[in-house]
Amino acid sequence: MTDNTQFPPAATIDPRSPISSSEDRIPWAAMAGIIATVTIFAMAQGLTYPLLSFILERQGTSSGMIGLSAAMTPTGFIFSAPFIPALSHRVGAGRLAILCSILAALSLIAIAWTQDLWAWMPLRFLLGVFANPLYVISETWLLAITPAARRGRIMGLYSSVVSGGFAIGPLSLGLVGTEGWPPFLIGIFAFLVCGLIVLAVARRLPDMPQEGETISVGGFFTLAPLLLAAVFVAAGFEQILLALFAVYGAALGSPEPRIAALITCFIAGNAVLQIVLGRLAEQFGSHPTLLFCVFASLAGCLLLPLLFDTWLIWPLFFAWGGVSFGIYTLSLIQLGERFTGQSLIAGNAAFALVWGLGGIAGSPATGVAMQLIGHQGLPLSLGLLGCVLALLLMAENRRR
Questions:
Q1: Could you tell me if 314 and 254 are in contact, meaning their C-beta atoms sit under 8 angstroms apart?
Q2: How many CB atoms are closer than 10 A to CB 164?
Q3: What's the pLDDT tens digit per position in 55-107?
Q4: Residue 212 has what pLDDT?
Q5: CB 53 within 8 A of CB 66
Q6: Which of 100-104, 283-287, 339-343 has the lowest average pLDDT?
Q7: What is the pLDDT of residues 199-242, one digit of tens each?
Q8: What's the rounded Cα separation, in Å, for the pair 123 and 129?
Q9: What are phi and psi for residue 83, nearest 5 degrees?
Q10: Interior angle at CA 65, CA 64 and CA 69, nearest 5
Q11: Using alpha carbons only, what angle is made at residue 167 by residues 274 and 233, rounded to the nearest 5 degrees?
Q12: How much is the mean pLDDT over the chain?
């Protein structure tokens, strides 16, 4: 297996060129392999968050401790992010992705074997360490080979398909339940399949881009602070919902199958709407579309307590899932618009680090808020995140 196939970086593609010319430059086989790998990996990730929360809830664990346990995975993201650019160059991006798939499967085996809160803390940390490089490498691959004229729709497609993988994860819990080995075996098998897909398409995958000045992950924070703030908020929305919505629903007397189905509906909206948001970004600009997603996410926070016990909760969750994750999709599109080469790798790694920060800060803080003020601490915490980002984006509009 080698990683030496060269593809033209995004910076060499003229965005004014005709669509037909841009299509000829897209390595579809490599793109399909990248998206398929991350989709299956996302399915395993989408399964683990609610599964472990359900198990801890049955054990009588407090919401604060459930949130702290969930924060271990994004802590692994934070720890691993600064090392990914150097490791991908030294080991090879394809080899690193395969290794991480195997190690993630071993981590989930250990989690299933122990079934203990305190043993899960380091194991969930390791799961985040091994999951993170696959996301960073895959998104860098995609941004490097995607023509500018098609960036919105292709990154929207990527986010939609990956979100579909997340949706399948919670949905599978409704089929196999949340007890015993069966749900864990689904995740373990998915992790291993990821490595097999990368191995199958390895010769078609590009190297990490080399051009441009070397920049550290920390140095990227000064280049795009607003983009990183948006990633933080998107991470907070997803991690908090996946980790603590089971607690919110249980407090309102909702059965586990309904909670799992609502989480699936949330992620299904994410999956369906990212392509639409990508096309809107191409037509109206990525910044206005990002602002729309933030305000629509805020509306979801306000409507959740009002509609939870009505049938309207289903369309609300569908739309809310799309626009809240759309914050990340639009940030990713802007990353590809503004950066190329080694700064693109550093940017993707910084996105992963901030995604981890959003998860590690959001879940425990929201868990504590729910302990102090009750279950409505969930939508209040999400609303606070959205308000801060909306203010930052409007301030940026005024500066423009």
A1: no
A2: 19
A3: 888 888 887 788 788 878 878 888 888 888 888 878 887 888 889 989 999 99
A4: 54
A5: yes
A6: 339-343
A7: 887 777 666 656 556 677 888 888 889 999 999 999 888 878 87
A8: 10
A9: -90, -10
A10: 120
A11: 55
A12: 82
CATH architecture designation of domain 28-395? Up-down Bundle (1.20)
* Residue from 64, 32, 52, 186 nearest 128 by CA: 52
Structure tokens at 343: 């700064």
Longest dimension (CA), the chain: 60
Phi first, then psi, for residue 211 (nearest 5°) are -75, 160
Residue 270 corresponds to which tokens in the numbers above? 């994410």
Residue 115: left if φ>0, alpha if ψ -120 to 50, beta else—which one? left
Query: Where do the structural domains in the chain lie, given as residue ranges?
Result: 28-395
User: Amino acid letter at 44?
Assistant: A
- In the chain, the amino acid numbered 367 is G
Strand-pairing partners, residue 206, are 5
Whole-model pTM?
Answer: 0.76
Residue with tokens 């080995």: 181
